[in-house]
């Protein structure tokens, strides 16, 4: 069976003390025989702290965003080279909160994915439809459009990314897509990847949207769900560890 990947997205949460407590509990509680990948996507300011806290553990460091630019006059931005200096292995790109509140377009998201990959950081490309789009029957069209922009930018290197399907209506709302709803979209994404690369089967497709200790096992049992991108539940060590156990 393909190795699963569970990534926690802390969003704009945490403090020096809370991070230390959370990571200490995670490192101690990690299954002895860990077969799945685990990562935490932390606010940029805490990358240095968390890099030290996860050192020697099997927890990978992830960023929540990356600049599409290499360097220069882009106040407030963080480049892929900078992330690399802090041992960052993955970065989210195109999270719906970035698309919604920061106006990130499909083209910007694709450029960010390329900027990360060029420096050896694996982009976790987030795609997903709003409730309005789902109700209008546009789910497939929307996620395919979002992924197509990244495929167009990366070409065959699309096999090097991670894709996260995150229905916007399920993020932070407590409403989870049913395993069948999520699997249906994952199958669409897998087919789209297969048309772009012969290595589509190895692209991890994560589900995100109110994944928690109670629903993780069922979601992760779906054939095209290779892991989870976990927001709220990744801030509680016990819950995140239960999700990791379900993926292990
Ligand atoms: C997310 O922020 O990527 C996410 C999935 O959040 P939540 O698990 O809280 O819905």
Write a compact overview of the structure shown.
With 248 residues, this protein is an alpha/beta fold. It has helices spanning 16-29, 47-54, 80-85, 96-101, 106-118, 131-135, 139-154, 179-194, 216-220, 237-247; strands at residues 5-9, 37-42, 59-63, 90-93, 122-127, 162-165, 205-208, 227-230.
Describe this structure in words.
One of its GO terms (molecular function) is triose-phosphate isomerase activity. The chain is an alpha/beta fold and 248 residues long. Helices cover 40% and strands 15% of the residues. It has one domain (5-247): Aldolase class I (TIM Barrel). It has helices at 16-29, 47-54, 80-85, 96-101, 106-118, 131-135, 139-154, 179-194, 216-220, 237-247, and strands at 5-9, 37-42, 59-63, 90-93, 122-127, 162-165, 205-208, 227-230. An 8-stranded parallel barrel has the order 1-2-3-4-5-6-7-8, surrounded by 5 helices. Helix 1 (16-29) links the parallel strand 1 (5-9) and strand 2 (37-42). Helix 1 (16-29) runs parallel beside helix 2 (47-54), helix 1 packs parallel to helix 10 and helix 7 (139-154) runs parallel beside helix 8 (179-194). 46% of the residues are buried. Bound molecules: phosphoenolpyruvate (PEP). Phosphoenolpyruvate binds at residues 9, 11, 166, 171-172, 208-211, 229-233.
